[in-house]
Write a structure and sequence with these properties.
Layout lengths: L10 E5 L21 H14 L3 E4 L9 H9 L6 E7 L5 H14 L4 E6 L10 H19 L4 E4 L4 E4 L13 E4 L3 H10 L2 E4 L4 H19 L4 E10 L3 H11 L5 H8 L8 H11 L6 E3 L2 E2 L12 E4 L1 H13 L4 E5 L3 H11 L16
Parallel strand pairs: 1-2, 1-13, 2-3, 3-4, 4-7, 7-8, 8-9, 9-12, 9-13
Antiparallel strand pairs: 5-6, 10-11, 11-12
Length: 363
């Protein structure tokens, strides 16, 4: 059973836009903000300099640059920040994937974390049940390899007998972060993940998800989880300024462009994406679904589609409200990513006691 980090001291992470997700105006591509080594490494180095605990390196195929190659490059250009590398289950031969991850972790001085992705592999379409079964098997075997254990596994998708490579001798697996909202996804998360990630929602709904997953993990697998919230943030000196920044962000967005952007993602039809759409539908005319939670970003983004918007006190209070219902980690982002990283670091980060999960994690 995993050891749980102190939930009163959350991990605060940022996001690097490896999947072309950086804008001044949503839906209006800017060549200087598209995914590239120069642009995305600047985001990560900004977050490192600002004292964030971790940074998500997302995985995409149609858009952006490769997350694994990027992680290897940025590992030696950062000093303190953990690297939360998104890895798509089934996309690479498992032993080779384990060797790559172990190598990157070594390059980063032990700062690697792993974000498990269960969406389709580019070029294939697999039904939900077998896709999550593949994810379950991959997580089990990948964990064993990263723990330096020999493999004797015969499943539906993994059939392996081998010893771990030398680089993994005596190793300890990085924590697995995983998100999903279908029943199959939640069961895999309860059994195999360490940090369950949920997307922005009302505080009450997030609390309900935490309670549901806590019961599932404990009842069926005798496990405890850490809970993470992936959300955007817009913080300014005053609430009025923050709301104007939100309005500025969507001021050039039209419906067709927003639909096209959302549908580019491989997970565009997932349970989680459907929930983000439902959240927008019940929001007020200004896009706010409750105090300081704005759904406008979801008009042009598949995935996390809401932002915490307000002045520093309001944003800090909203994060605390999520902590109060069980959130122990935050993965935040904002537009543009480097600029909002600086703003959050100036106005909110000093108000929050925070620390990375990985140094406190043990199995």
């Amino acid at each position: 059973m995993s050891s749980i980090a102190d939930p009163t001291i959350p991990e605060i992470s940022w996001f690097s836009a490896l999947c072309d997700d950086d804008y001044e105006f949503l839906g209006q591509p800017n060549p200087t903000l598209t995914s590239s080594w120069k642009h995305c490494s600047n985001i990560v180095q900004t977050a490192d300099r600002n004292g964030f605990d971790n940074v998500l390196l997302p995985s995409g195929y149609k858009l952006g640059i490769d997350s694994t190659a990027f992680a290897a490059g940025i590992a030696i250009q950062t000093e303190h920040i953990n690297l939360l590398l998104a890895v798509r289950m089934g996309e690479m031969h498992l032993p080779q994937l384990a060797r790559q991850l172990a190598s990157i972790d070594q390059m980063a001085g032990g700062r690697l974390c792993i974000n498990i992705i269960s969406s389709d592999i580019p070029g294939e379409a697999l039904d939900s049940a077998p896709r999550y079964q593949r994810t379950r098997e991959w997580m089990q075997v990948l964990r064993q390899l990263l723990n330096g254990q020999a493999i004797d596994f015969h499943g539906e998708f993994v059939d392996l007998e081998l010893e771990p490579p030398r680089i993994l001798e005596g190793a300890t697996s990085p924590p697995f972060y995983f998100g999903g909202f279908s029943p199959a996804a939640k069961d895999v998360a309860a059994a195999e993940s360490d940090v369950f990630l949920t997307w922005p929602d009302t505080v009450a709904s997030v609390g309900g998800t935490v309670a549901e997953m806590t019961t599932l993990a404990a009842k069926h697998y005798d496990r405890e989880l850490i809970y993470g919230l992936r959300a955007h943030v817009i913080v300014r000196e005053t609430e009025a300024m923050a709301r104007r920044a939100a309005e500025h962000l969507v001021s050039k967005l039209d419906v067709d462009t927003g639909d096209a952007i959302r549908n580019k993602s491989l997970d565009a039809a997932s349970f989680g994406v459907a929930r983000q759409a439902a959240l927008r539908e019940v929001a007020a005319d200004d896009g706010f679904v409750e105090d300081n939670l704005w759904t406008g970003i979801g008009r042009a983004r598949s995935g996390a589609g809401a932002a915490i918007v307000g002045n520093p006190d309001q944003v800090a209070a909203k994060l605390q409200a999520y902590q109060n219902v069980g959130i122990g980690a935050f993965i935040l982002s904002g537009y543009t990513h480097s600029a909002e990283c600086d703003l959050f670091a100036e106005h909110v980060l000093p108000r929050i006691a925070h620390a990375p999960i990985k140094p406190r994690f043990a199995r």
